[in-house]
Amino acid sequence: MSNATNDETAAMCADYQMDTYARTATIVKGKGSRVFTPTKQQYLDFTSGISVLALGHAHPAVVEAIKTQAEALVHASNLFYTPQVGLLARKLSQVGLGGKCFLANSGAEANEAMFKLARLWGSKNGGKYEIVAMRGSFHGRTLATLSATGQSKVQAGFDPLMPGFAFATLNDLESVRAAVTDATAAVLIECVQGEGGVIPATDEFVKGVRALCDEKGILMLCDEIQCGMGRTGRMWAFQHYGVEPDAFTCAKALGGGLPLGALVASKALSGVFTVGSHGSTFGGNPVACAAALAVLKTFEDENIVENAAARGEFFRKGLMQFVEQYDDVLEVRGKGLLLGLALKEPRAGELLDEMRLNGLLACKAGDSVVRFLPPLNATEKDIEEALEYLGDALAVVFGGEGAE
User: Fold this and answer.
1) Which residues, other chains included, contact 383 with Cβ-Cβ below 8 Å and sequence gap of 6+?
2) Do 6-59+304-398 and 73-301 share a fold?
3) Which residues are catalytic?
4) Is the peptide bond before 160 cis (omega within 30 degrees of 0)?
């Protein structure tokens, strides 16, 4: 069945896979910024696996690292040392906060680890346990990360949610101050809310949260799962603001397409977890860690973060023409190559369908925002092509309604 057609694959998924995603095309191959269907139709992929494939599909360095490690050692468990885990942990410390890390399988697992770290720290510092998160945020689909997510639409039906989370409003520092109580252990933010509509935090807000946490003697936590790993034109999104959190999480792009997440802590928090206080059977898998090391080396060798910043500015300028051209297009949001095109009406799905017909893949961030997540090594030619496809799609969807 490896040669199954698009219809056959769709039928199998419909019959045997739970309907948790609204899938479209069948993808059987990817190369660089392109993906291909069983009939060899190609798309320009500006989803990057939802911000996972920072180097595009099948980057040679990542492919070679996976092959080499798979031939040597696929799994050993965390009862033993493996070189890849040590090398990756050291590298994350060097590019992170200078402390230690915990390796997991996903962003949700990394966030679970960060919440447990905050609670364990809080239990040793006055019995604090509550985490203040932001409305509009997204932190994962497990029960704890869902409880920390500030979107009622993804929480519906899963009551009772886990206690210990309070909510404030992004870019409203006074709402954060009002939410902090004697039980508060930490404040959790995404410096750019991805799933929440591609909304960046303001400089005043992020710096204010850091100052408030210092004032109250509590932790500042950052979820860098989507906005980290160079996506916004800095290695970590919090670096745009000139502050450091006490801990942050990363995943998605870290493993080069393989499941991998990490909790990265400051030196001050690196001793909170002790033997037996947390764990993960597959966390720190040698193949995934080898892929991550190849990703991070390529970031340095090919100036990937710098490219993301430059291409992001180029893309933003291109998208702005549509804001000026169409009344139905409100604004361009985001940083680097995490960009959203905000629409006046909830018609993102309609626009995405038309874009796909033209050969461009992107995704939604709510019903009114089209989110673009191209590979961080995308070229100007890739972006020019995407703008052309998007322009054609806008002409069909809004040409007779909102063109100036």
Assistant:
1) 311, 314, 315, 318, 374
2) no
3) 138, 223, 252
4) yes
Place of tokens 């291409």: 311
**Class of domain 6-59+304-398 as given by CATH:** alpha beta
Q: Could you say which DSSP state residue 239 is in? A: G
pTM over 0.90: yes
Tokens 């629409």 belong to residue: 343
Encode the chain (404 residues) as per-residue pLDDT tens digits.
355 667 788 888 888 888 878 878 888 999 999 999 988 899 999 999 999 999 999 999 999 999 999 999 999 999 999 999 999 999 999 999 999 999 999 999 999 999 999 999 999 999 999 999 999 999 999 999 999 999 999 999 999 999 999 999 999 999 999 999 999 999 999 999 999 999 999 999 999 999 999 999 999 999 999 999 999 999 999 999 999 999 999 999 999 999 999 999 999 999 999 999 999 999 999 999 999 999 999 999 999 999 999 999 999 999 999 999 999 999 999 999 999 999 999 999 999 999 999 999 999 999 999 999 999 999 999 999 999 999 999 999 998 654 55
Q: Name the architecture of domain 73-301.
A: 3-Layer(aba) Sandwich (3.40)
Q: What is residue 22's DSSP assignment?
A: -
